[in-house]
Design goal:
Blueprint: H1 10-15, E1 24-26, E2 36-38, H2 41-46, H3 53-64, H4 72-79, H5 87-91, H6 105-118, H7 124-134, E3 164-167, H8 170-174, H9 178-189, E4 194-195, H10 206-211, H11 214-230, E5 235-238, H12 241-253, E6 261-264, H13 265-272, E7 285-288, H14 302-310, E8 314-315, H15 335-339, H16 341-356, E9 362-365, H17 368-381, E10 386-389, H18 390-397
Parallel strand pairs: 3-4, 3-5, 5-6, 7-8, 7-9, 9-10
Antiparallel strand pairs: 1-2
Length: 410
């Protein structure tokens, strides 16, 4: 059997002081209603220590010391159940070395998943997802035809080459088709010419990366970067937080060099708004959900809130927000949604109830995966709320509402 990838993080695993902060912590400065508040959403629901970072790190020690071995139950029940939300890293306080930085728990999780992949221990549902992404006729985690990828763009006559390229991603292309159309209309209204790969656009490979198939993730990334580079684009705009984080951070871990600038649409909208005529008003209070991959992974909490302020909406924050925001429950690339649907439903239900408690009737988030997951949670829990991907809200307020898709309010 091949060497453990986990060996790369042997020192870090042993630095974990098992302090329990990654389970739940004192809520001072985080929430007003509770003395203690959950950190890890999976532990928050299932209440067993092995689902937390400190629990997995203890398991990792036993794996490295050959006290236990990787097996199907361990992989399916523990290693692949992590959401990848990175909340544990925000609260991590290593105790063994003075001044030590928070442990990179996400890299430890991914190393364990690489080991599981090498041993054929990936859960069946996730194996099917990998196969769909690598199938040339499909190329997306939903199993839909590649030819359907650009249905949203058929009437927009987008060029293949320009200085700015829009990367739509799978979730927006197949499930939230009003989002990419809104982005294009905003960019054109702001005077920017934008290119689009169309059916040549590949999945970013987020699930490949998070499921542990680094070899195919690297091949997929290299080909996708080449296709974008061939367009001559100097900057790529993303509307999906997951795709943006994959390009910005995950590709570095794969050893991929990015030869163009990366920008999430939340940041782009800041300059675009200066060129748009904002006509329509939203009178209802608005709450905002921080996507894990734009917030904790991407470090951007300000850009979306600046957009909402410029739009003149009244923002009412959820109890847990910014660095301490509760995950929507989908997991990285929807891996929790795919493999643990009951867990996903419980986590997203808790988040939508937190949103409902603000009294806001509108929820905004710049991530199509979060929007879909929380919208489903609202329907399941009888929560009366409208949902906007951030570009959709801007487009509607600027009078650019789609003529083709009318599902702007979820």
């Amino acid at each position: 059997m091949s060497q453990f990838k986990l060996e790369d993080f042997k020192k870090e695993v042993w630095y974990c002081g098992c302090c329990s902060m990654c389970r739940d912590t004192q809520s001072k400065g985080i929430a007003k209603k509770h003395a203690w508040i959950g950190v890890c959403p999976v532990y928050d629901v299932l209440r067993f220590d092995h689902y937390t970072s400190r629990g997995r790190n203890s398991i990792a020690k036993y794996l490295l010391e050959e006290v236990i071995e990787y097996n199907t139950d361990l992989a399916d029940d523990v290693i692949f159940r992590c959401l990848g939300c990175k909340a544990c890293e925000e609260i991590c306080t290593p105790t063994l070395l003075p001044g030590m930085k928070p442990l990179e728990n996400m890299k430890i999780v991914r190393a364990m998943r690489q080991d599981c992949y090498a041993r054929g221990l990936v859960p069946e549902n996730l194996k099917e997802t990998l196969a769909k992404i690598m199938d040339n006729e499909i190329g997306n985690p939903f199993g839909l035809e590649r030819t359907e990828r650009m249905d949203w763009a058929e009437e927009l006559d987008l060029p293949k080459k320009a200085d700015i390229l829009y990367y739509a991603g799978c979730a927006a292309s197949y499930q939230n088709q009003n989002t990419p159309e809104a982005v294009i209309k905003i960019m054109r209204a702001a005077g920017d010419e934008v290119a689009y790969l169309g059916n040549d656009e590949l999945c970013c490979g987020q699930q490949l990366f998070w499921i542990g198939d680094f070899e195919n993730a690297r091949k997929n990334a290299e080909e996708l970067v080449k296709r974008i580079q061939d367009t001559g684009a100097k900057k790529v705009i993303f509307s999906c937080a997951g795709c943006f984080n994959t390009f910005k951070n995950d590709y570095k871990e794969l050893g991929i060099t990015i030869p163009f600038k990366l920008e999430h649409v939340a940041k782009y909208l800041g300059s675009a708004l200066k060129k748009l005529d904002i006509k329509n008003e939203i009178k209802e209070q608005v709450t905002y959900h921080d996507p894990c991959h734009l917030g904790r992974h991407g470090g951007d909490y300000k850009s979306p809130r600046k957009i909402l302020k410029k739009l003149g909406v009244e923002l009412v924050e959820m109890e847990r927000n910014k660095a301490f925001a509760y995950c929507c429950g989908a997991g990285s690339g929807g891996t929790c949604l795919i493999n643990y649907p009951d867990l996903n439903k419980e986590i997203r239900s808790r988040r939508i109830k937190e949103a409902e408690a603000t009294g806001a009737k509108v929820l905004v988030s710049p991530c199509p995966m979060c929007i879909k997951n929380l919208r489903d949670a609202a329907q399941e829990n009888g929560v009366d709320m409208e949902f906007y991907d951030l570009p959709n809200l801007v487009a509607e307020k600027a009078g650019l509402k789609s003529d083709v898709y009318d599902s702007w309010k979820g």
